Amino acid sequence: MLLFWPFFGLSFLFLERFRMVPHYHISYCRLDDFIPFNELFIFPYMFWFVYLIGTIAYTFFKDKQDFVRLMKYIIAANTMSLIIFVAFPTIQLLRPVVFPRDNVLTQFISAFYRFDTNTNVAPSLHVIDSVAVLTVICRSKRFAYRPIRIGFAVCCLLICASTVFLKQHSVIDLLVAIPVCYASEWIAYGEPLKKTSAVRAGRIVR
Predict the structure, then answer these.
(1) Residue among 105, 116, 128 nearest 52 (CA)
(2) CB-based contacts of 143: which residues, under 8 Å, 6+ apart?
(3) Is residue 149 a part of any domain in this protein?
(4) pLDDT, tens digit only, all 206 positions of the chain
(5) Torsion sign, CA atoms 130, 131, 136, 138
(6) What is the model's pTM?
(7) Which of 16, 38, 55, 171 has the most CB within a 10 Å radius?
């Protein structure tokens, strides 16, 4: 399952750097204009790497079942995303030409913009993989302690918010991620979280 990552990385690199696309669909909605750029969101945005890799590593060593389900979710979601990128290539034009402030964070973001292209944005991979982690955490017996789940949920929300506050994504990209996440959860678990929780609660009552 870990071999998926080099496959995905090379595939995404090809789509980003080498694929010739005659026309991109612009990802935009009016709500984007009301969301201000804020460089402080670079912290949760970059924390995504720790959030994702840390959870994969922990489950790999501590809980085989959670690891397999997490990877099933990620493989399904990211594969669907690649297919969408090929069939419906998107681009966002939200990045500021001039930053409202000049500081270390905006200088870092400027360099990051040059490295990370503004194409293949819908659905947002940051959102998809963050929701994948949160889904596994909320379903895992190992992470049944409520404060842990709340902490992961807050991190997930901040990561998702960071994508629009850094102008890396349109709100549309977050919305497109929702059906991809839902379908991936079905593939990984066979049923949604609400139904599973209801069934368990019914068993406890009986």
Answers:
(1) 128
(2) 137, 149, 152
(3) yes
(4) 999 999 999 999 998 888 888 889 999 999 999 999 999 999 999 999 999 999 999 999 999 999 999 999 999 999 999 999 999 999 999 999 999 999 999 999 999 998 889 999 999 999 999 999 999 999 998 888 899 999 999 999 999 999 999 999 999 999 999 999 999 999 998 865 555 444 443 443 33
(5) positive
(6) 0.87
(7) 55
**Residue type at 142?**
R
* Residue labelled with tokens 């959860």: 185
**12 occurs within a structural domain:** no
* Domain that residue 198 falls in: 34-205
* Cα distance from N-terminal residue to C-terminal residue, the chain: 38
Q: What's the burial of 124, exposed, middle or buried (CB within 10 Å: 0-12/13-18/19+)?
A: buried
Evaluate whether 165 touches 35 at the Cβ level (below 8 Å): yes
Specify the number of domains making up the chain. 1
The two tokens of residue 71 are: 């990877």
Kindly state whether residue 11 falls inside one of the protein's structural domains. Answer: no
Q: Is 25 helix (H, G, I), strand (E, B) or coil?
A: strand
164 domain-assigned: yes
Instruction: Write down the residue that tokens 């990370």 correspond to.
Output: 116
